Amino acid sequence: METIVVTSGERWVDIDAVACAIAYTELLNLLGRNATAVLPGLLNNSVTPFVRALGLSYETTCPPNPQSFVLVDISNSEFFAECVDLARVTEIFDHHSGFEAYWRERLGEKAQIEMIGACATFIWEAYLRRGMANRISPCSAALLAIAIVSNTLNFNLPLTSERDLTAYQQLLAHAQLPSDWLKNYSGEQDAASLADPAAVVLNDTKEERVPGLDRPLVIGQLELWDGKSFSKHHRNLAIAPLRNNSSPYWLLHTPSISEKRSYLITEHPQVQALLKQRMGTIFHDNTAVLEPLVLRKMILKSLQ
Predict the structure, then answer these.
(1) What pLDDT is attached to residue 47?
(2) How far is residue 218's CA from residue 240's CA, in Å, rounded to a whole number?
(3) Is 129 helix (H, G, I), strand (E, B) or coil?
(4) In sequence order, what are the beta bridge partners of 263?
(5) Backbone phi, then psi, for 252, in 5-degree steps?
């Protein structure tokens, strides 16, 4: 029987990638196929102790000689898990822009790449299309539901679609989540972020080539329920790993969910000028405020 590896990025993975890999692996196995979720990267701050206690089933290394690979929450091959053989990629689910044309030319309808709130929404829709909605496990349903809320920042982002909202409501019927789960989840994220913000940023950092800069732009992210006080008084702790990066161009993005705004911090005049040109941001004391909330991928799309 063929072996299918469902995977995402090499360096680190967030709740969306974890949820998608585990839930889609479960779906393939329900359909009688032999699939394994493989997540070699570090689990970032969005995969809190509450999430891990659900019982996550995945491997950190690929099985020998897989026949095919399914990629979730990623479409830039530069950051794929190292075990991925590009020639054997048969399916991709992603909600980041930039590589749609490439993968649709190679995979056709098997490349589902659209800018919506969460990749987890695509995976739930796959369950519906295959008539397997009532067979999803409580763990996979909970992971997908949490991923949708996390990636849309509790449905506050402009990219949130009706599909995200519908998927979340449908998943709640299968997820068996406690009524106060969001309070617990957000509290755990903030506690971890405030305990060691440098580590959190280090595990949630992306490098992208941006027109107008001769080196990659390094974007760290620190999601908080209340980011205002942190951005004002404790930002040096979070930007330390960005200052020490190989590229001089860096940016810290801090979504503040309760305020429905994002804080951008950078000390580099060229990065500030580029953000002002492309997004209209105005920096005071190396900090800019964006309203409403945005995601890092939205910032990158604007800069591209």
Answers:
(1) 94
(2) 13
(3) helix
(4) 254, 289
(5) -105, 125
Q: Which of 76, 53, 67 is nearest to 6 (CA)?
A: 67
Question: Which CATH superfamily includes the segment(s) 4-184?
Answer: inorganic pyrophosphatase (n-terminal core) (3.90.1640.10)
Instruction: Tokens for 82, please give them.
Output: 């190292």
CATH class of the domain defined by 196-303: alpha beta
Instruction: For the chain, give every domain's residue range.
Output: 4-184, 196-303
SS3 245: coil
Q: Which residues contact 146 (CB under 8 A, 6 or more apart)?
A: 15, 19, 51, 177, 181, 185
Residue 192 clears pLDDT 90, i.e. is over it: no
- Residue 250 pLDDT > 90: yes
What is the pLDDT, as a whole number, of residue 231? 67
Q: Tell me: cis bond preceding 292? Omega within 30 of 0 counts.
A: yes
pTM: 0.79
